[in-house]
Request: fold
Amino acid sequence: MRQNSQSRCRVLVLQPPAAGWQFLQLPLLLAALLLAMLLCNLHPSAVHAADAHPSHMAAAGMANCEINKGACTLKNGAAVVTLDILPKPVKAMQDLSFTVTLPGQQSYPGLKLDLQMIGMDMGTNQVPLTRTADGRYTGTGVIPRCHSGKKLWSATVTIPGQPFETSFLFNVL
Amino acid sequence: MSFSESTYALMFVSGFFGGFGHCLGMCGPIVAAHAMNAGGRRLFPHCLYNLGRITTYSLVGGLMGLTGSFAGVIRPIENFQNILMAGIGLLMVIMGLIVGGWLPWSIGQGGCGWNRIGSLVKFVTETGSPGAFFPMGLLLGFIPCGMSYTAFIAAAGAGVHAGSQAEGFVKGMLMLLLFGLGTAPALLLLGGIASVIGQKARLKLHKASSIAMILSGAIFFYRAVAL
Reply:
């Protein structure tokens, strides 16, 4: 009885193949698949590092901040903004401490820090900031991982009452 | 408008626009794959699928609000999410190979080996009953998704500032319920269109849809394994 059941399985599983030419399509399909995967891993790098405008660098998939080496400072108009993220290396999917330092000792109520993946809409991810005794702004946030494989993120500091924003572009692990 | 009301509205709007911008690209292949095979009813299976997905989002959002921690909830289920994604990718590849006629087996004829997988594929794609699409939505709600992660982070943040754990749970659940509802129109629209195309041009696009399914499945599998 058991033998019969096993042989019935073989009969059902090993049906004769259909038209032979159909199986020639499979190697072609696998080749196309391999090509698609290779293309997925290519990154644009057409913009020179000297072109430091954040929007151009973002479009080229380039960072303007090596956050894993230390805090980053960017000058935007009259404002000099410094961003640091701990712990290092900065990894996705873990609690991160963000610190924003602005010039002077005055308060900046309504200061905003927005996180956004470059090249993929990930929704609104804002880090709530509170002012510390030494005049810096700190908050805890998380950078989510995206299965698109993209690693470049921007942290945009918006100072209320000022017409410009400061965007730090950095890679996460 | 109070803080909470504006937060809930923001979650819905974020889901709505993200649905068209993010979800169609990342989850569209899954919706299109089962739409091409759903047969008969066009929108009902998609409604059930979305209901299941939103239920999962709401429950996970509730947990985020309850604990006030994104990483604390996600880390224990991260491996499960990746295995799930790899499994779905593999299933899509097998489904595409069977439907395209590149495997010498037909769907759901026997009770052993590949035919069991074929039966599973048939159950998942062709049943069109609550027994298939609602649980599928529940399960696929766990697929790792950067945009839903962002919504979960917001829910966890609401939990931190909630007066009690119960309040955090309710807030987180409502936030993700609205986020999920916001994402539904895009996926329902895609599902509806894919169903119509699937029925009208099923024979003409047979091979093309099979190849698209195989490629999409392979990319899902690759992302789950490589990232």
User: Anything to note?
Assistant: Confidence is low (pLDDT under 50) at residues 108-112 of chain B. Chain B touches chain A through 49 residues (CB under 8 Å). The longest helix of chain B spans residues 165-200. DSSP finds nine helices and no strands in chain B.
